[in-house]
Amino acid sequence: MSIHLHNSQPQTISLTAAPRQSKLRAMLPYIWDYRGRVLLALLLLVLAKLANVGIPIVLKHIVDTLDNHSHTLPLALLAAYGLLRLGSSLFNELRDAVFARVRFQAMRRLSNTALTHLHRLSLRFHIERQTGAISRDLERGTRSVSTILNYMIFHIIPTFAEFGLIAMILFSQYDPQFVIITVITVAVYVAFTFAVTEWRMEFRHTANHAESQANNQAIDSLVNYETVKYFGNEAFEVRRYDETLQQWEEASVKSQTSMSTLNFGQSAIIAIGVTLMMIFASQGVVAGRMSIGDLVLVNTFLLQLFIPLNFLGIVYRSTKYALADMELMFNLLDHPTEIQDSPTAYPLEVGEGAIHFDRVSFDYQPERPILQEVSFDIPPGHKIAIVGTSGAGKTTIARLLCRFYEVTGGRILINGQDIREVTQASLRASIGIVPQDTVLFNDTIYYNIVYARPQASREEVIEAARLAHIHHFIESLPKGYDTVVGERGLKLSGGEKQRVAIARVILKRAKILIFDEATSSLDSKSEQAIQAALEEVATQHTTLVIAHRLSTIVDAEQILVMEQGQIIERGTHAELLNQGGMYAHLWALQQEES
After folding, report:
1. Would you state the pLDDT for residue 520?
2. 3-state DSSP call for residue 237?
3. What are the residues whose beta carbons fall under 8 Å from the beta carbon of 131, sequence distance 6 or more?
4. Separation between Cα atoms, residue 215 and residue 58, nearest integer Å
5. How far is Cα 57 from Cα 59, in angstroms, rounded to an integer?
6. DSSP designation for 339
7. Which residues are registered as beta bridge partners of 369?
8. Do 217 and 209 touch, CB atoms closer than 8 A?
């Protein structure tokens, strides 16, 4: 998948020599572990080319022997001819087999590296990027590495090695004009191929961009299937998809048409070169300077050289496209990781899990502050709730506590340790969260629960489901815990998904718990049951609750009321009601609604 970072306008990729060389160098670590195999493959390549060049030489001697009206079959020469042909094929196949491990191991390692890097990139990166385009470009990028390795070892190097051997033989055995014609033909051919291919690259880039965009649009519309159906926008989605495919079609047609021009030009150059060589060779035979065997030798050399050289045009184009795809993928790998462990980072000692927000400020853009010097404490084992209007910064506090973003001012401490000074892995291992929008893997219910702690036993998973009051529902399903929940968990209701998420966080056994509107998708009866379970789970845990329904947090030791990134009220439920401020107003509104 070459990583194509989606923009509204097509990008023109400049593949100058420097970045191209740097990206090729970037491939070296992926093949270095198999350098022995690479050297063996190159040795087999040389042997194959020596055998291939030896075939016309033996054929020349066979023809000359028969032309001299010999009454004895040149069995030794015929046997040598057959062995050289067999050897050429054998060495080529051995080369392919030896190098296969290098190619596919490089693809595997690069795929793992890309996925690992994507997981390391910040939440900001993933919110701003489109997954469909990234998926498509990752596929292209990984495939491009295999393409480049394949062409370098199996086509480019062999072709030029054979060209060098043939040029040496022609120069040492025949008139210089044969070498001159061969070199000029090859030079003109290569120059023409490079020039036309550079022109054609623009069409390829446009087609790639449109293909990635169309793929992203298709995936996006399918992921949001219900929304499309709610608004009856099936025709709109197909029309938008088709408009992008139309751009792809136009660029692809131009690419194909220009390729026909390129192919004809290449064939014309080869035809002229071969014709000139045969004219000079025929003159040599007529003049007695060359034998019929020499004519066959020159002709066979040319056929052997120009057949792969004709293919070299396709190789060059494919390599250029692969370099473009690889460029995008390595640009992704070069994308800086916004959230990084400091060199002196140490594992978090969570202790009792005390949390301290010390004048924390945060913004996505400087002109739009989200939090402004927010300060509060959550003592060990206590439950603190945050309420407020939409956009007040409640969920941002949870994300900052998990260090999905870096604070732009102030600091966050857990058990007296600045979370920027501890490892991210240990920090997130200490926090269990039930997010507002629960998204499940397209796998079984069991997999989605045990994901919190993969080494947990089945009994522990079932116990977590019991505490989350979802065990009986799971058991009622035909496949029980082996029921597949569908893409993003769409086969389950919102309340069922949230209870799976609650079971997952129970299984994690984290010291710090975050419930981000964890019961927002539940009916009143289920909410009461889940609230009892959450209270039981939260015992002896430091708990942060982000709530919309105020009835779920009346037992909190402290309630923070936020508006426009600031805490405007704080206190217990009773204290806030007595203040008669925003909390009291929200409480009155929700009491009327109920």
Report:
1. 61
2. helix
3. 216, 219
4. 55
5. 5
6. S
7. 363
8. no
Q: What are the residues whose beta carbons fall under 8 Å from the beta carbon of 82, sequence distance 6 or more? A: none
Question: Against a cut of 0.90, is the pTM above it?
Answer: no
Q: What are the structural domain ranges in the chain?
A: 27-333, 355-593
pLDDT value at 1 more than 50: no
**How far is CA 434 from each of CA 81, 296, 351, rounded to the nearest angstrom?**
74, 79, 22
By the 8 A CB rule, do 573 and 549 touch? no
**Hey, do 27-333 and 355-593 end up sharing a CATH topology, with the first three levels equal?**
no
Angle between helices 35-67 and 17-32 (to 10 degrees): 100
N residues, the chain: 594
pLDDT in tens, 149-178: 777 777 777 877 778 888 888 888 888 888
Side-chain-side CA neighbours of 15 within 13 Å: the count stands at 21
Q: Which of 37-46, 139-148, 516-525 has the highest mean pLDDT?
A: 37-46
Residue 55: Cβ-neighbour burial (10 angstroms; 0-12, 13-18, 19+): buried
Q: In this structure, which CATH number among 3.40.50.20, 3.30.70.240, 3.50.50.60, 1.20.1560.10 belongs to the domain 27-333?
A: 1.20.1560.10
Fold (topology level) of 355-593:
Rossmann fold (3.40.50)
Selection from 564, 225, 191 nearest residue 396 by Cα: 564
Cross-strand bridge partners of residue 44? none
Sheet holding 417-418, edge to edge: 368-378, 355-365, 409-414, 417-418
